[in-house]
Design a protein that fits this description.
Chains A, B: It comes from Streptomyces calvus. The structure is a homodimer of 315-residue chains. Chain A is α/β, with parallel strands linked by helices and 315 residues long. Chain A folds into two domains: 109 residues, NAD(P)-binding Rossmann-like Domain (Rossmann fold), CATH 3.40.50; 172 residues, NAD(P)-binding Rossmann-like Domain (Rossmann fold). Chain A has ten helices and eleven strands. In chain A, the strands form two sheets. In chain A, strands 7-6-8-9-10-11 form a six-stranded parallel beta sheet, with helices on both faces. In chain A, strands 2-1-3-4-5 form a five-stranded parallel beta sheet, with no helix packed on it. Chain A is elongated and about 70 Å long.
Chain lengths: 315, 315
């Protein structure tokens, strides 16, 4: 019996794969070797989810893995027209990041409400300056992205007494459609971007959207950097069109040291870490092993990405 | 008919007192004039709750206000043996600060869980450094102080999935007694001080208590500065006995510019602002007016402080 070949896009072996010993032949690839190894792989595990190597390597001719799993919620870094058009099944890490990202959003929203960044600045200056801060309960949030991450954010903010509105691709089932977005943005104290990056969402937070928001509003992006027109956000912050923002994701990652974003007043920059709580790699490894066992048994996979839409439909 | 005299300890008139126009004669006092004006006052409103003037002015002989209200939750700044032994009723601002302080604690706990202070430091250095952070849900908190503020903190942390234990002066009704404190501290990820300052709580967070905590634990004080032996906390942080702390209250306020506390690694210093959300002065003014109307009608006051214990009993 020939063992199936699992090709791992990463230098280091993921945790928890030991469980598959004797059931699979594991090979590794990096950006330079991926194209050459794709033809002989049955399964591709995109463990280095910061890499865009799949999108570059896939278009070549020839046999391709029947299944690609990415250890991330977003799939924008690997979907190319050729992969989307192929029979290959793509799955993602749906579920692993929901609660961590929701907590991260709550942390940033509360930090803004309580003026914590300013408190830390004043502490460095050894300055005692009492300020009034905001009560979070009773404020309004607009969460854009109605997948499990957006829903977890809504649950967490709800639990803190925030009135939330969830905006998705289409209205229904407690979700607002895009036609309500501007109206909801105009009354939100907190705007959270947690949508997948697709042709429909790319650049959706542009100058117009920031102009619609209240001058007291804060914007938090935990989705993908390209949801935001970064220059428009910078201008909105510099001109106080909105009160502040937190970006955990960027059009270019890692954010270059010479990016102007590091020093925009009112902007908190974090290094794409919102979902990554202690143990996350183990969880991602265990999740892949579970999926592998379904695949091995010839059973239907879960977390299957709709490659036309660019995310896992349903919730 | 002689109007009762309301003596306000503060230079500025509190908001909302206009409602009492024609029903009370309002006078103002400061630390230097308070002792001289106490004898002719029927009611004393301690609006400047940072002042210790009452404790200094009260001991003199002679007539004294029958009712003292303080626009604060704590009463340690005004209770002296002579006031405690007198017939004068003391009331406080119970209720106004509960939810704001609970949110403030949640903000600090989440900031620590998500390593936000470090993120802001790295941003200043223009350094992209991914770290794993902590998942808040499933962690354990020990909240010391079982009054309405402590209970609001418990409710808010509970809503975020934290397992909480509440410690009060005596066990019962879901509250742990002091005999459980060390055991609870030893397993807590987050320790929150929200107790009134009394002879029983002064200096309770000392070297022993920090030593009992886990090296990964964070300590947050929103009660009174003197609950903590500050030198012991500084040592615990410098020697990494605990992971970090946030102090909103201090033995000496405002914290002097040359205090070593400003620069202790892992310590967040804020200027006694945890309860002070936009509108708080209006709320405090309205609360006093409500109490005044009870007093004027000869009805029993609420929020009456047990002057022996140093807080309003019950919850």
């Amino acid at each position: 019996m020939t063992l199936p070949t699992l090709l791992v896009l990463d230098a280091d072996p993921p945790p928890r794969l030991g469980r598959l010993t004797g059931r699979v032949r594991v090979e590794h690839a990096d950006a330079s070797t991926l194209a050459g190894r794709l033809p002989s792989a049955d399964v591709l595990l995109v463990w280095d989810f910061t890499s865009h190597a799949v999108r570059e390597a896939w278009p070549g001719e020839g046999p391709r893995p029947r299944w690609v799993h990415t250890a991330s919620a977003g799939v924008d870094h690997l979907l190319c027209p050729e992969l989307a058009a192929s029979d290959t099944v793509v799955t993602n890490a749906r579920g692993v990041f929901d609660q961590p990202i929701a907590e991260y959003v709550a942390a940033l929203v509360l930090a803004f409400a309580k003026d914590l960044p300013r408190t830390l600045e004043l502490q460095r200056e050894r300055t005692w300056r009492h300020r009034e801060s905001r009560r979070l309960a009773g404020t309004r949030a607009c969460v854009v992205g109605s997948g499990p991450i957006g829903r977890a954010i809504v649950r967490t903010l709800d639990a803190l007494g925030v009135t939330t509105a969830l905006v998705g691709r289409a209205a229904g089932d407690g979700v607002h459609g895009p036609e309500d977005l501007d109206r909801l943005l105009a009354r939100a104290d907190w705007v959270v971007a947690a949508a997948p990056l697709t042709d429909g969402t790319r650049g959706m937070f542009d100058a117009h959207r920031f102009a619609v928001m209240q001058p007291s509003a804060y914007f938090v992006n935990v989705g993908r950097g390209q949801l935001v027109v970064e220059e428009a956000l910078v201008r909105a912050l510099r001109e106080r069109v909105i009160a502040g923002a937190a970006l955990d994701v960027f059009a270019s990652e890692p954010l270059p040291g010479d990016s102007p974003l590091w020093e925009v007043p009112g902007l908190v920059v974090s290094p794409h870490m919102s979902g990554d709580t202690v143990g996350w790699r183990d969880e991602l490894g265990a999740q892949f092993v579970e999926l592998f066992e379904l695949w091995e048994a010839g059973r239907p996979l879960v977390n299957v990405v709709d490659k036309q839409r660019g995310y896992v439909p349903g919730h």
